[in-house]
Amino acid sequence: MFLLAMLGLIVGVFGVIMGNQWLYLAYAMFLGELMLAYGIFLAPKRIKISRYRESIGASPSVWLKVAFISDLHLQPKKSKSWVEKIVTKLQAEKPDLLLVGGDMVVHDAIDIQAFEPIKNLATTYGGFFILGNHDYQDNPKLISQKLSSYGLQSLINTGVSLTIQGKELRLSGADDGYYGIGNSKILQRQDGTPHIALIHEPDLIQDIPEGQTDLALAGHSHGGQIRFPVIGALHVPSVFGRRADIGRKIIKGIPTIITGGLGEVGCRARLFNPPEIVIIELGI
Ligand SMILES: [Fe+2]
Predict the structure, then answer these.
(1) How far is the centre of ligand 1, averaged over its atoms, from the C-alpha of 140 (Å)?
(2) Range scoring the smallest mean pLDDT among 51-55, 130-134, 188-192, 277-281
(3) Could you tell me the distance, in angstroms and rounded to a whole number, from the CA of residue 266 to the centre of ligand 1?
(4) Cα(200) to centroid of ligand 1, in Å?
(5) Which CATH superfamily is domain 48-283 in?
(6) How many angstroms separate the alpha carbon of residue 221 from the centre of ligand 1?
């Protein structure tokens, strides 16, 4: 960043002296550096709320508010105060249910301690989590233990049935697609009960037989993290490519909401793709 700024300054001075094309190059570099500075210092600190309305019951008569967050990638520069900001935003939404889609840290499991403020979030039906590939790089057991101690329930390779105002909702979760143990049966609907499958990588949709869940929620792709107008994401880590970048998609016939997540990996920057909380008005 500093080197680019210096280079821009040199080209700028040279451009003033030489004029014409050099001046245009200096302008272009200056604009590029402004975008870079925004992507590194400002964009990762914003939070946008993306809203969806999904009806997954045959005759929905009960509506609840589901908050879905993922990919916080907690690390010393995105720590407790960042989580407090997220929790404040979530509290304002008064969610009935919280789902957490994994990749809680970058690689150091101990950084999960920054997630403690989630304890302060009140929900009607509780909070549930799965882990992502980054959570397996150090000590996944510690991360699971901490999340449980913060009041969240593990959905890793398991499911729960909730009774909500007389209606049933089935939630089930996958283990991580790279390091976990696969169990596609857990991701399927049971007895026609409205069903949500929580998966970390969108690629795990391949494990769900077509039509065997009503709604899949995924993270991992960060929406490409760096996006450009018109072009979109340059790279999305998925076999589905840019089809699995961000937003609501139909993949293999399954309605799927992919969040851009709340943290960063690799270059700690975002562009045209701020950190995101997903709120779903869910009809069952
Ligand atoms: Fe991931």
Answers:
(1) 13
(2) 188-192
(3) 12
(4) 6
(5) Metallo-dependent phosphatases (3.60.21.10)
(6) 7
CA of 166 from ligand 1 middle (Å) equals 36
Q: Can you tell me which residue has the tokens 């057991």?
A: 141
Q: What is the mean pLDDT of residues 25-48?
A: 81
Q: For the whole model, what pTM was predicted?
A: 0.90
What is the distance in A from the centroid of ligand 1 to the CA of 217?
13
